[in-house]
Automatic annotation (TrEMBL):
The lineage of its organism: Bacteria, Bacillati, Bacillota, Bacilli, Bacillales. Catalyzes the conversion of uracil and 5-phospho-alpha-D-ribose 1-diphosphate (PRPP) to UMP and diphosphate. This is Uracil phosphoribosyltransferase. One of its GO terms (cellular component) is cytoplasm. GO terms for biological process: UMP salvage; uracil salvage. The gene is upp.
Length: 209
């Protein structure tokens, strides 16, 4: 599978195990998702371009590096994607945040768009779409399509857990989008849940059912 990056840092893998466990309650689930989002942000930004600048330290002049290139934008898919925003902003505080609201129709499993609000300059930004779950791929594809329709040119997708079916679906529709995961799981079940997965990410984050 091309363009898939599984971020296998030991801290990410350790925390993901606790995120998956049934007995992990809302408070811990939320905190762990937040922490893993920060760790994933660290990994996903490894290839950002740098440029050299001249600075003055208290001791001497120096050539030092700062981030160059496009500014970043974070786009959580509502609602579960919200659980990863603060964790990412810990490391990328200047990023702008857009929102795409989608839910999966429980019968058809097709995504239904109900809200879109984006930074005005998305075509000049490198966008990171975030959602804990990539299951059938319908929601991610719809969100990416929505961004492209509004001018976005550079998009990455970052999820905690994905099913191979979802990864394949996004590759088919958007081969230009690199996918970053904490884990690539085994399969989808007949209800469209990722196996073994972590259950319903939105419900576990917000304590709903
Ligand atoms: C979940 C999840 C993804 C989507 C993944 O959201 O957060 O957005 O399902 O499934 P897919 O790949 O098959 O589209 P859900 O629709 O449950 O909405 P929520 O975030 O409001 O709970
Ligand atoms: N959405 C979730 O929240 N969990 C899954 O396993 C699949 C879709």
């Amino acid at each position: 599978m091309g363009n898939v990056h599984v971020l296998d840092h030991p801290l990410i893998q350790h925390k993901l195990t606790y995120i998956r466990k049934t007995e992990t309650g809302t408070k811990d689930f939320r905190e762990l998702v937040d922490e893993v989002a920060t760790l994933m942000a660290f990994e996903i930004t490894r290839d950002l371009p740098l440029e050299e600048v001249q600075i003055q330290t208290p001791v001497s002049e120096a050539t030092a590096k700062v981030l160059a290139g496009k500014k970043l934008g974070i786009v959580p898919i509502l609602r579960a994607g919200l659980g990863m925003v603060d964790g990412m902003l810990n490391l990328i505080p200047a990023a702008k945040v857009g929102h795409v609201g989608l839910y999966r129709d429980p019968e058809t499993l097709k995504p239904v768009e109900y809200y879109v609000k984006l930074p005005s300059d998305i075509e000049e930004r490198e966008l990171i779409v975030i959602d804990p779950m990539l299951a059938t791929g319908g929601s991610a594809n719809e969100a990416i399509e929505s961004l492209k329709k509004r001018g976005a040119k550079q998009i990455r997708l970052m999820c905690l857990v994905a099913a191979p079916e979802g990864v394949e679906e996004v590759h088919q529709e958007h081969p230009d989008v690199d996918i970053y995961l904490a884990a690539l799981d085994e399969k989808l079940n007949e209800k469209g849940y990722i196996v073994p997965g972590l259950g319903d990410a939105g419900d576990r984050l917000f304590g709903t059912k």
